[in-house]
Amino acid sequence: MHAEYKLTRRVTFAETDLAGVMHFSNYYRWMEEVEHAFFRSVGMSVVQEDGGVVYSWPRVITSCEYFAPARFEDEIDLHFVITDLSEKSMTHEVVFSKGGVKVARGRTKAVCCVMNDGTFRSTAIPTFLLEKLTVK
Fold it and tell me: Which residues, 6+ apart, have CB-to-CB distance to 60 below 8 Å?
């Protein structure tokens, strides 16, 4: 079973547009925020060093669908769920909801990579990381 994580955020004035609605780009920022919070919750980071090897998760696909507006001062629940793990990649979804009503859904596919001198090389997800991405 794949891991999940929940976080609640309040829409700030700076995150809204002239109509008072949260700007679409902020959904991507929040997707990244809840992803980072998930990684921290399992004792990891999106940039993780182990034995002198640095692992990271560059995105290869990301999307977001919008169903209802989120407005200034709205309290939004973010539900992060890993939906797929393959040998080298992780796909996760973030459902944004307000009072139980779905506002948006974002999806991201990221590839496990070894970072070296500013370059990325895809690699199989190491066992020590894989174990933290699943629920036992």
Answer: 89, 109, 110, 111
Asked if 103 and 69 touch (Cβ cutoff 8 Å), the reply is: yes
pLDDT of residue 132: 87
- CB neighbours (10 Å) of residue 57? 23
Asked if 39 and 92 count as a contact pair (C-beta separation under 8 A), the reply is no
d(C-alpha 35, C-alpha 29), whole Å: 10
Strand ranges across the sheet with 4-10: 4-10, 75-85, 89-98, 101-111, 59-66
| Residue 25 backbone dihedrals phi, psi, to 5 degrees | -65, -25
Instruction: Reply yes or no on whether the pLDDT at 136 is more than 70.
Output: no
The per-residue DSSP string of 11-47 comes to --GGGB-TTSBBPHHHHHHHHHHHHHHHHHHTT--SE
